[in-house]
Amino acid sequence: MPEYLPTTPYRGTRDFLPPEMSVRTQVYERLYGVLESRGFQRYDGPVLEPIEIYEAKSSREIVEQQLYTLTDRGGRRLALRPEMTPSVARIIAGNAGKLQFPVRWYSNPNCHRYERPQRGRVREHWQINADIFGSESPSCEIEIFELIHDMLGGIGATPDMWRLRVSDRVLLSSILTDIVELDESLLRGVSSIVDRWEKYPREKLAEDAGALGVTDKQFDRLAETLAGGAAVLDEIPSAVRENSQLAKVLVTDAAGLVEFDPMIVRGFDYYTSTVFEVFDTSPENNRSLFGGGRYDNLVGLYSAQKIPGIGFGMGDVTLIDFLGTHGLLPEPLAEVDVVVIPVEADLADPARSVARSLRAAGLRTSTPLEPRKLGKEITRADKAGARVVVIVGREDWDGGSVTIRNLVTKQQDQVSVDSVGAAVRASLDQAAEDVTGAGGAPSS
RNA sequence: GUGGGUGUAGCUCAGUCGGUAGAGCACCUGGUUGUGGUCCAGGAAGUCGCGGGUUCAAGUCCCGUCACUCACCCCA
Asked: Which CATH number is associated with domain A18-325?
């Protein structure tokens, strides 16, 4: 008995068969289209990076528990990238001399984290990253917020399906030190408690805060402040607000793009000001979809230049879950539009010739790779999603014609070889009209 | 790292009181010459997750293990 190797993909990674790949590709292409319509340019980088670029600024959990690491033959310590931001900061720093700042960049890298797979989380995912580098203007925040609206709109989501909640690390620090009157040494620990605020019972939060050294009075003040939401903005000293990118956005028309919410914190250490997170509003998928923020010091790890950045990462797993929850997933694309079927094996050459002219006419066309009975081939063509087959028979061909059969309308016509492209196209258009006419789909 | 659920054909699952495996769908072939979806007939396809134990006998009982999955932790 031979011992076979496993066919399942490595834990937490996925194979994408053509139908799933088609769905993913269609979603991505819409998103790329939106990004490029706003002048974002695509870049890419290596999946392997020196481990140090994560040790410096990513969250501690990522580095200590979730990094895939390896040592190369030269003894260099490397990691599979768990996220793209450190890489893009490195690329920006290394090429700053030839770039015209500010730049708008995007990418769609696969990223790896060693963790336990569950809904919405795997070990390898693809994450669209969109970032702006080289500007401290709050216009960058507005650009990113508008981009998020456009991207979600571009994949069919309506504004009631999601919420864009924003905060600012500068404002949060002020809330914690000026309003709650915490010592600065507690900032990090208490920020983490704020991050978990919605997910835990009050007693648990109080206990954790107490363990850090937060007094009951301070905790109550914190709870009261967070419950007040945006009202806290008025209490924050104006000198602080001048240092907050987000505060500047919130006094413009663009304030309507977001909801200020002091409970938004996010786990990465490198965020310095604006932070934001998009949530699904559906009760069935009530979760954070993606998020990002401003990181003004990350490029500074690589060079003396001060190049601020702001951006976000949108992962494919949560995005596909979101689209599925709201019934927004596109249908997989059919294999081909047309299959050209020779009735006899020795008509394969004519069939390929007809197929070539159909492709020249812009139609996705295939021919059978193995000879089978005509009926079988029509079945296969139908299952492949072709709406038209072209039948190349001996008598027709000798007389300079072929037969086109529309699998949707069942209409069948004999046409001259010269006009086959136009005839198939007309047949496809007719079938499409029949479908939309009968379906009565809403226009929006 | 912690806890729960589930592992039988490609898929969804059944399998009684232990007696060495079934259905539906899908797939392939045929129902005579160049016409699909229905119908009919036939066919192929299973290390019952894996290892051990109990037993004359294990898909079934016991132990272990692995995988998948959901949740926690944390986060995207």
From this structure: 3.30.930.10
Instruction: Answer whether the bond into residue A102 is a cis peptide, omega within 30°.
Output: yes
Q: Half-sphere exposure of residue A163, counting CA atoms within 13 Å on the CB side?
A: 14
Q: Are A389 and A340 in contact (CB under 8 A)?
A: yes
Distance CA A190, CA A115 (A): 25
**How many CA atoms within 13 Å lie on the side-chain side of A8?**
3
Closest CA to B68 C1' — which residue?
A11
Determine what percent of chain A is predicted with pLDDT higher than 90.
53
pTM: 0.90
A127 marked ligand binding residue: yes
* A202-212 vs A187-195: helix crossing angle, rounded to 10: 170
The rounded distance, in Å, linking the Cα atoms of A142 and A144 is 5
Radius of gyration of chain A (CA): 28
- C-alpha span between A121 and A12 (Å, rounded): 8
Ranges of each domain in chain A: 18-325, 338-437
Please indicate whether the domains covering A18-325 and A338-437 agree at the CATH topology level.
Answer: no
Spacing of A5 CA from B15 C1' in Å: 29
Binned at pLDDT 50, 70 and 90, residue A288 comes out as confident
A99 contacts: CB under 8 Å, gap ≥ 6: A92, A133, A134
Q: Which CATH class is domain A338-437?
A: alpha beta
Identify which of A61-75, A189-203, A215-229, A303-317 has the greatest average pLDDT: A303-317
Yes or no: say if A106 and A128 are a contact pair by the CB < 8 Å rule.
Answer: yes
| A382's tokens | 């139908």
Q: What are the two backbone dihedrals, phi and then psi, of residue A48, each rounded to the nearest 5 degrees?
A: -100, 135
- The protein footprint on chain B, as nucleotides within 7 A of a CB, is 1-2, 27-30, 34-37, 47, 67-76
Structure tokens at A147: 């981009």
Q: Any idea what the Cα angle at residue A44 is, between residues A39 and A46, rounded to 5°?
A: 165
Closest nt to residue A343, judged CA to C1'? B34
